[in-house]
C-alpha cells in the first residue's frame, strides 16, 4: 500500500529545494513531514481554521487544501522564512511587543496572512485588516492585539517611527 | 494516487476521455476538504489543471465578460472593470470563505461542486451566465439556469471541462447580492439572494433554499407585473412556489423562508406595487 | 516585559506535541461507541484488513484498575462490558501509517445492545433511564442564608424567571494529543495539558506504576481554556497502553472532528430564579435553583456545580438566600472544565434576571444594581464578609462612562424610531469571580514549589503550572526577578516535567498568578535565606551568594521551597457551605452596544467596554489580552456557538458548523482596570483568567433585549431563535 514517492522542485523560503514524498500528500504534510518545517501548524485539515496558511507565489493559501504536487516550481513561503538574516520581520517584532501571540498556535498563519496584506496595501485600515485576517481563527486574543500589531508593523514598514500606543499596552486607565 | 498534470487543454481533454472516472481538479478548495480522513480518495485519478495557463485569465469581448475555466474569485476581485460592470461578482467573491479560499477557488469549480449554498453561482445566474463545456467531442454551451437538474446533478459529462463562463454585458438598472450566514466571514450561506434587472427583465436567484441554486420565476413575475406588495409576508406565497427550504444543521426552513421574504421586500421596496 | 516565549512562537521554532521529532513511531487511533447506552455485544474486525499488522488494545490490556482516576473512580479507560455514551472509547489501534490506522478504525464495528438512554437533563428520568443513584442526580448542593420562604412571603414583589445556557466547545487551536514511549523502564508521556500531575496520577493508578516508573512532560500548549484540565489523562492512558503493548513510541493526536465530538464541553445549565424585592428594587430574598448536565461520568461536575451555585446570587447583598444545585447524570458525552467553571452559566441567569426584574419593576437596570451591589462589610450568599475596599459601584460607573452608556441610550431612541431595518441597544452586567480552588480546596491541594539557585547565580523556578497562552512563564519570571532584584534573563522557568518539578497544583481556576505566584515569591525568599542572606538582599548580592553556595557545595544547588498556606482569617465549612468561599473575588462591570438587523434577526456587538478590579495588574499587556480573549469567547457563547445534539453527542463537530467569532465579528473591546492590591496575592494580584467569560453573555443578551423589545432567556441567541422571539412578541 505505500505509495511510490514522487519528487519535485520548488522555491522554499528563498532557496531551491527538491523533495520526495508520497503523491497524495498535501503541501501541509510535505512541509511538516518531508521538509521538517513544523512552524506551519494544523488546526482542522478541512480548510476551516486558517492555521496552516502559507504563501504560494505571495498569496495566502491553506496548505491543507493544496496537493504538494501542485506546487512544482512555485514560490512557497513559511514562517521559518520570515526573519531574514537573523533580523525579525517588522510583523514579528510588533506581535512580540503588543502581545499578539498568546498560545502561539495560530500565530505563524496570522503573520503570513498579514505579510501578504502588507505586500499589496501599505496603509491598511482596521477594516482591511479584519477582512484580510478573517480566514484565520484565534481563540486566545480576541484578535484586537493582532490588528494593533499589524497596524504598528505597517507604520514601521512605511518608515514611520511608530510606537505602541499606551492603550494597546496598558488598556484604559 | 494518480495525479495527471496536463500542460495544455487538448491534453487535459484527452486524459479525461481516456480515464472515465478521473476527477478534474482546479483550486482544490472543495475536493481537498476532509482529505486526510478520506484515504479512499487518495486512490482516485485526478487531473490537475494548474498548468493550463490559457484557462486562467478573464477577458472582455464587445458583448461579454469571459471567465476562464480557472479564473479565481481573487482574479475577479482585482479586476476594476468587473467591479464597475458586474459588481455582484465582486460582492459575492469577497464573501467566499476568506482570502485563502478566494485566492484558489474558481468560478467553474463553484459551478461543478453544485452546492445549494454556493456563493458564486447565484450572481452568475442572475447575470444570465452561460457555461461553456468542452470535450474531445466538441464544445457546448448551457445557460447556467438550466445547468442543474437536481441535488448535485448537472449537465456535465465526465469527459467535459468547463473551459469558460460567458457573462453577457447588459445595462443593469438594479442589482443586489445578499448572503446571510451566522457570522460575518468564513460562513456558509443560510440564505443567499441575487437580484438583477436589465432589458432582459428581472432575475431573482436564491441559494440555500432548494436542492440547487435556482431562479425564482414566480417572484420574478410579481416584479414584472408590478403587483402590490405591502409587507414581507405578502411575498410568502410566491416564495413557496419557487423554493423548498429544509431544516438542517445550519438553519431552519421557517427562518430561511422568512429571511428571503424580508430581504426581497426591503431590498426591492421601491419596486413593489409601483 | 515581553512574553517569555514570544520569539519561539513568532519564528515557528516552538514545538508543540505534534511537532516533536519522534523516530520509528506508530500512530494511535481510538475506536468508539456508536450508541449512547448499552451492553457491548461484540466487537467485529473487518475481513479486508490484516489485523496482525496492527497493535490492538482493549480493556484486558490495562495492568491496573480500569479507571481514569479523578474525583470519582467511575470512568473507565476503555469500556469493558457496557457503554454510557456515544464516542466512549472501546478499543485502541496503532500502526506505522496514519492513513492505515484511520481506515482500520473504520473497519471495526462495536455492536451495542442498546438500552434506554437519558438524554435530557431537564426532564425527570423514566425508571428505565435511571443509571445513577435513585434519580440520576450526580451531586446535590445547597447554600442557605436567612429565611427565604418567610422573606418571599412578605416581599411586596416577587419576580420569577427561568434561564438556560448551552454547551460550549473550547476550540483551542491546537487539538489534543499525546506521545508515549519507554525510556529504559520508565514510561514517558508528553503532550498538550494543563495539569501534569493529574495525568501522572491517572497513569500511575491504571497502569499500576509508581512515580519512579512514569514521567509526564507538558509540551507547549496551544490553548486550553479548561479543555486540557482533566481530558488529557484519557489520551495519555490510551497512548501509554499502545506504547506498552507495542514497545514502540506512539503518537495519538486528535483531529478536529474527533476533538470536538469526543472531548468535554462547558456544562449546559438551567437556572430558575424567584426573587423577592422591595418596591425600590432592593433584594429581599433570592431563591435559586441551578441544574447542570453532567453527562455520562462524574468528571469534575460536582466542583463545577459548586462554583456555579456560589456565584449564582451575583455580587449583591441579600439577607435571605437559598441556592440549590443538582448535577444530572445523562448519557451525553461527559461535560468538563471550561473557563469560568459553572460561574458563567449561573451569572448569565443572574444578570439576565436583574434586567428582567428592572423591567418588571419599571426601574433603571443601573439603579437596580447600584442599590444592591455589595458594600464592604456586607456578606455573600455563603456568609463571606466582603471587606476588600473595592468600590463596586465606581467600577460600574467607570464602565458606563467609558461606554457612554447614557448618551448612547438617548441616541438609540432616535435611531430605533427612524431606521427601517436596524435596532440598537445597550446592555450591562455586573459580576464577580472567586479565584483559586473553592473553600478548603487550596488547603487540600497542598501545593509546593521550588526555586533553585543556578551555578551562574541565576535562578530556576520549578513548578507544575504550565503556559498555554495566558502568560505563566512571563509572570513567574517577573515575580521571581522582582523578588530577588534580578534581571528577567537571570530567571529560567523549568519545563513542567514531573520528575523535576514539585506538584504546585493544576493550571486552572484563575489560581496560577494569585496563588502559585505567591509560592514563587516565598520560595525566592526561602532561597535567599538558604544562601545566608536576609530578606532585603537583592540583585548582585543574591547572585554572588548563589555562586558562592555552588562553589562550597558542588553538585548541590541551593533550593528555596514554599508550600501553600491559607491566608489568615479564612474559614470554610464544606458541610454547611458556609464561610469564605474564596480568598478573593475579582469584580467587573461590562457594557456592550448591540445592533440587530430586523431582516435577518442577526445581532452584532458593535462596542464593548470591560472594566474590572483584579487587584494589582502585574503585566498589563498580558492582562488586557486575557480580558479581550475572554470577552470574544463570551460573545461567541452568547450569539453563535451552539452544539447540535444527536444521541448525546455533538453533530456539528466541524468549524464550519460550530461557529466561533472571526476577526470580522469582533467589536472594539476597550479594557480598563481599577487597581486595588490584594495583600495575599502575588504582587497584589487577584485571579483574572476566568472573570472575562462571566460577563459578556448577559451584557450582550441584555442589549439584544433592549434593542428588540424581546426577552431572551436562553443562549445562544442565534438569528433563528431571535426571529422566533420577535414573532412571538408581535403575536403576544
The number of domains of chain A is: 2
Biggest chain pair interface: A-C, 61 and 67 residues
- Amount of helix of chain B: 25-40%
Distance between the termini of chain A: 64 Å
Task: List unreliable stretches of 5+ residues of chain B.
Answer: none
- Helix- and strand-based class of chain B? alpha+beta
Q: Beta-strand level of the residues of chain A, as a percent range? A: 5-15%
Write out the strand line-up for the largest beta sheet of chain B, numbering strands in chain order.
4-5-10-6-7
Strand content of chain B: 15-25%
Name the quaternary structure.
Answer: heterotrimer
Can you tag this structure with a few keywords?
heterotrimer; A: 173 residues; Ubiquitin-like (UB roll); DNA polymerase, domain 1; 2 domains; five-stranded mixed sheet; 6 helices; elongated; B: 274 residues; alpha+beta; Uridine Diphospho-n-acetylenolpyruvylglucosamine Reductase, domain 3; Enolase-like, domain 1; five-stranded antiparallel sheet; four-stranded antiparallel sheet
Kindly describe this structure:
The complex is a heterotrimer of chains A (173), B (274) and C (732). With 173 residues, chain A is of the alpha+beta class. Chain A has two domains: 76 residues, Beta-grasp domain (Ubiquitin-like (UB roll)); 81 residues, Orthogonal Bundle (DNA polymerase, domain 1). Chain A is built from six helices and five strands. In chain A, strand 1 and strand 2 form a beta hairpin. The model of chain A has no long low-confidence stretch (mean pLDDT 94). Chain B is built from ten helices and 14 strands. A five-stranded antiparallel beta sheet of chain B has the order 4-5-10-6-7. Chain B has a four-stranded antiparallel beta sheet with strand order 11-12-13-14, with helices on both faces. A three-stranded parallel beta sheet of chain B has the order 1-3-2, covered by helices on one side. The radius of gyration of chain B is 19 Å and the shape is globular. By secondary structure, chain C is an alpha+beta fold. Chain C has 19 helices and 28 strands. In chain C, the strands form seven sheets. Chain C has a seven-stranded mixed beta sheet, with helices on both faces. In chain C, strands 7-15-14-13-8-28 form a six-stranded mixed beta sheet, sandwiched between helices. At the A-C interface, helix 2, helix 3, helix 4, helix 5 and helix 6 of A face helix 1, helix 16 and strand 27 of C.
Amino acid at each position: 500500500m505505500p505509495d511510490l514517492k514522487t519528487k519535485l522542485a520548488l522555491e522554499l523560503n528563498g532557496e531551491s529545494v527538491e523533495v520526495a514524498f508520497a503523491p497524495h500528500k498535501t503541501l501541509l504534510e510535505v512541509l511538516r513531514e518531508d521538509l521538517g518545517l513544523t512552524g506551519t501548524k494544523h488546526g482542522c485539515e478541512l480548510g476551516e481554521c486558517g492555521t496552516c496558511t502559507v504563501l504560494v507565489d505571495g498569496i495566502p493559501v491553506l496548505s491543507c487544501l493544496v496537493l504538494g504536487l501542485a506546487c512544482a516550481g512555485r514560490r512557497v513561503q513559511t514562517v521559518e522564512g520570515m526573519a531574514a538574516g537573523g533580523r525579525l520581520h517588522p510583523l514579528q517584532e510588533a506581535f512580540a511587543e503588543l502581545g499578539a501571540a498568546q498560545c502561539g498556535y495560530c500565530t505563524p498563519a496570522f503573520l503570513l496572512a498579514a505579510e501578504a496584506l502588507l505586500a499589496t496595501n501599505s496603509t491598511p485600515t482596521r477594516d482591511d485588516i479584519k477582512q484580510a485576517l478573517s480566514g484565520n481563527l484565534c481563540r486566545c486574543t480576541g484578535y484586537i492585539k493582532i490588528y494593533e500589531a499589524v497596524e504598528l508593523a505597517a507604520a514601521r514598514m512605511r518608515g514611520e517611527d511608530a510606537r505602541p500606543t499606551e492603550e494597546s499596552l496598558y488598556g484604559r486607565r | 494516487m494518480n495525479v495527471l498534470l496536463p500542460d495544455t487543454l487538448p491534453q487535459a481533454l484527452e486524459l479525461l476521455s481516456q480515464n472515465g472516472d478521473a476527477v478534474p481538479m482546479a483550486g482544490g478548495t472543495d475536493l481537498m476538504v476532509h482529505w486526510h480522513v478520506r484515504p479512499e480518495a487518495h486512490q482516485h485519478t485526478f487531473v490537475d489543471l494548474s498548468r493550463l495557463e490559457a484557462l486562467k485569465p478573464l477577458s472582455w469581448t464587445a458583448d461579454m465578460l469571459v471567465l476562464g475555466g480557472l479564473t479565481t474569485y481573487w482574479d475577479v476581485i482585482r479586476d476594476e472593470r468587473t467591479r464597475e460592470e458586474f459588481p455582484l461578482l465582486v460582492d459575492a467573491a469577497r464573501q467566499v470563505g476568506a482570502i485563502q479560499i478566494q485566492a484558489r477557488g474558481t468560478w467553474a469549480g463553484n459551478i461543478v461542486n453544485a452546492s445549494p449554498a454556493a456563493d458564486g453561482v447565484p450572481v452568475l445566474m442572475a447575470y444570465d451566465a452561460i457555461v461553456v463545456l468542452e470535450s474531445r467531442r466538441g464544445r457546448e454551451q448551457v445557460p447556467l439556469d438550466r445547468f442543474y437538474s437536481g441535488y448535485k446533478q448537472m449537465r456535465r459529462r465526465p469527459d467535459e471541462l468547463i473551459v469558460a463562463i460567458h457573462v453577457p454585458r447588459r445595462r443593469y438598472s438594479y442589482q443586489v447580492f445578499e448572503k446571510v450566514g451566522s457570522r460575518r466571514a468564513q460562513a456558509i450561506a443560510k440564505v443567499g439572494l441575487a437580484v438583477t434587472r436589465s432589458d432582459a427583465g428581472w432575475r431573482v436567484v436564491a441559494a440555500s433554499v432548494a436542492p440547487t441554486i435556482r431562479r425564482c420565476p414566480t417572484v420574478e413575475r410579481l416584479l414584472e407585473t408590478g403587483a402590490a406588495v405591502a409587507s414581507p409576508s405578502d411575498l410568502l406565497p410566491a416564495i413557496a412556489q419557487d423554493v423548498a427550504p429544509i431544516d438542517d444543521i445550519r438553519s431552519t426552513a421557517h427562518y430561511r423562508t422568512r429571511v428571503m421574504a424580508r430581504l426581497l421586500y426591503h431590498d426591492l421596496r421601491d419596486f413593489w406595487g409601483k | 516585559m515581553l512574553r517569555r516565549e514570544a520569539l519561539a512562537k513568532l519564528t515557528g521554532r516552538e514545538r508543540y506535541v505534534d511537532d516533536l521529532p519522534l523516530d520509528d513511531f506508530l500512530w494511535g487511533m481510538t475506536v468508539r461507541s456508536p450508541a449512547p447506552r448499552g451492553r457491548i455485544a461484540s466487537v467485529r474486525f473487518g475481513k479486508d484488513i490484516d489485523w496482525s499488522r496492527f497493535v490492538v488494545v482493549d480493556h484486558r490490556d490495562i495492568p491496573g484498575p480500569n479507571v481514569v482516576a479523578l474525583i470519582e473512580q467511575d470512568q473507565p479507560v476503555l469500556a469493558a462490558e457496557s457503554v454510557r455514551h456515544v464516542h466512549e472509547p472501546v478499543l485502541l489501534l496503532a500502526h506505522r501509517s496514519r492513513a492505515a490506522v484511520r481506515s482500520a478504525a473504520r473497519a471495526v464495528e462495536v455492536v451495542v445492545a442498546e438500552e434506554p438512554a437519558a438524554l435530557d437533563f431537564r426532564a425527570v428520568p423514566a425508571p428505565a433511564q435511571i443509571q445513577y443513584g435513585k434519580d440520576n442526580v450526580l451531586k446535590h448542593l445547597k447554600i442557605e442564608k436567612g429565611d427565604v420562604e418567610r422573606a418571599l412571603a412578605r416581599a411586596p414583589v416577587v419576580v420569577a424567571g427561568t434561564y438556560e445556557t448551552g454547551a460550549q466547545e473550547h476550540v483551542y487551536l491546537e487539538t489534543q494529543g499525546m506521545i508515549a514511549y519507554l525510556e529504559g523502564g520508565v514510561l514517558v508521556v508528553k503532550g498538550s495539558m494543563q495539569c501534569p500531575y493529574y495525568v501522572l496520577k491517572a497513569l500511575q493508578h491504571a497502569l499500576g506504576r509508581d512515580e519512579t516508573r512514569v514521567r509526564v512532560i507538558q509540551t507547549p500548549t496551544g490553548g486550553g481554556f479548561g479543555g486540557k484540565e482533566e481530558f488529557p489523562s484519557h489520551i495519555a492512558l490510551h497512548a501509554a497502553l499502545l506504547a506498552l503493548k507495542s514497545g514502540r513510541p506512539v503518537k495519538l493526536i486528535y483531529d478536529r472532528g474527533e476533538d470536538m465530538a469526543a472531548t468535554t464541553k462547558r456544562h449546559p445549565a438551567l437556572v430558575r430564579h424567584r426573587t423577592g424585592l422591595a418596591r425600590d428594587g432592593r433584594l429581599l430574598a433570592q431563591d435559586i435553583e441551578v441544574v447542570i448536565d453532567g453527562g455520562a461520568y462524574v468528571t469534575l461536575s460536582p466542583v463545577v456545580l459548586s462554583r456555579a451555585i456560589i456565584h449564582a446570587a451575583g455580587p449583591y447583598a441579600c439577607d435571605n438566600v437559598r441556592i440549590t444545585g443538582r448535577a444530572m447524570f445523562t448519557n451525553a458525552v461527559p461535560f468538563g472544565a471550561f473557563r469560568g467553571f459553572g460561574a458563567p452559566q449561573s451569572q448569565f441567569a443572574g444578570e439576565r434576571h436583574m434586567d428582567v426584574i428592572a423591567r418588571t419593576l419599571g426601574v433603571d437596570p443601573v439603579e437596580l444594581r447600584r442599590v444592591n451591589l455589595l458594600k464592604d462589610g456586607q456578606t455573600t450568599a455563603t456568609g463571606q464578609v466582603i471587606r476588600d475596599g473595592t468600590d463596586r459601584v465606581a467600577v460600574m460607573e467607570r464602565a458606563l462612562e467609558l461606554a457612554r452608556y447614557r448618551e448612547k441610550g438617548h441616541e438609540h431612541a432616535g435611531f430605533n424610531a427612524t431606521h427601517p431595518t436596524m435596532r440598537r441597544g445597550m446592555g450591562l452586567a455586573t459580576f464577580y469571580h472567586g479565584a483559586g480552588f473553592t473553600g478548603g480546596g487550596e488547603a487540600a491541594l497542598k501545593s509546593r514549589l521550588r526555586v533553585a539557585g543556578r551555578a551562574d547565580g541565576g535562578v530556576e523556578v520549578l513548578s507544575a503550572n504550565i503556559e498555554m497562552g495566558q502568560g505563566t512563564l512571563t509572570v513567574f519570571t517577573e515575580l521571581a526577578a522582582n523578588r530577588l532584584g534580578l534581571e528577567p534573563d537571570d530567571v529560567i522557568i523549568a519545563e513542567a516535567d514531573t520528575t523535576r518539578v514539585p506538584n504546585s497544583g493544576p493550571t486552572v481556576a484563575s489560581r496560577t498568578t494569585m496563588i502559585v505566584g505567591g509560592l514563587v515569591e516565598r520560595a525566592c525568599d526561602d532561597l535567599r535565606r538558604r544562601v545566608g542572606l536576609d530578606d532585603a538582599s537583592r540583585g548582585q548580592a543574591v547572585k554572588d551568594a548563589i555562586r558562592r553556595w555552588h562553589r562550597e557545595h558542588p553538585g548541590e544547588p541551593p533550593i528555596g521551597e514554599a508550600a501553600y498556606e491559607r491566608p489568615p482569617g479564612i474559614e470554610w465549612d464544606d458541610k454547611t457551605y458556609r464561610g469564605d468561599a474564596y480568598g478573593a473575588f475579582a469584580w467587573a462591570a461590562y457594557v456592550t452596544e448591540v445592533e440587530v438587523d430586523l431582516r435577518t434577526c442577526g445581532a452584532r456587538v458593535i462596542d464593548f467596554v470591560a472594566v474590572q478590579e483584579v487587584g494589582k495588574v502585574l503585566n498589563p499587556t498580558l492582562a488586557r489580552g486575557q480580558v479581550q480573549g475572554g470577552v470574544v469567547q463570551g460573545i461567541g457563547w452568547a450569539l453563535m456557538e451552539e452544539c447540535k445534539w444527536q444521541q448525546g453527542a455533538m453533530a456539528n463537530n466541524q468549524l464550519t458548523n460550530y461557529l466561533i467569532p472571526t476577526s470580522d465579528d469582533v467589536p472594539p473591546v476597550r479594557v480598563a482596570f481599577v487597581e486595588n492590591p490584594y495583600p495575599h496575592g502575588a504582587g497584589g494580584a487577584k485571579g483574572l483568567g476566568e472573570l472575562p467569560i462571566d460577563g459578556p453573555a448577559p451584557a450582550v443578551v441584555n442589549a439584544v433585549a433592549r434593542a428588540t423589545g424581546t426577552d431572551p432567556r436562553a443562549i445562544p441567541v442565534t438569528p433563528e431563535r431571535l426571529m422566533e422571539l420577535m414573532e412571538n412578541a408581535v403575536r403576544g
